[in-house]
Amino acid sequence: MGSCVSKGKDDDDSVHNVDFSGGNVHLITTKESWDEKLAEAGRDGKIVIANFSATWCGPCKVVAPFYIELSEKHPSIMFLLVDVDELSDFSSSWDIKATPTFFFLKNGQQIGKLVGANKPELQKKVTSILDSVPESPQRP
Fold first, then answer.
1. From 25, 28, 49, 57, active-site residue
2. How far is the C-alpha of 80 from the C-alpha of 27, rounded, in Å?
């Protein structure tokens, strides 16, 4: 299932217990949960960012805390996490060549994509998406 952008499966000298989901990141474990979250995002008018990741991937481990941080800062966006090994057939249908790969979706349609654990570029894409979506009134 694709390759990790800079580390191989056997090169696992990094921290073992990295939380990949937390904050407002929703872990997707089935195709049904994916469909449910996309339907929920559609109803709520939310943009979805889907992180296709792998637990053994070094760069995935590095970007995971930043992804969680983004999810906490931007509740108007739905953040999803898909483990490419857990949902390999589903991930293959998205043509994942390397991990992490981030897809940006609106109404279930891809509006952007980022391959690699590039924090500044991920932040830039999130900012750009937020700038393109009209603000919804925040409740206290």
1. 57
2. 6
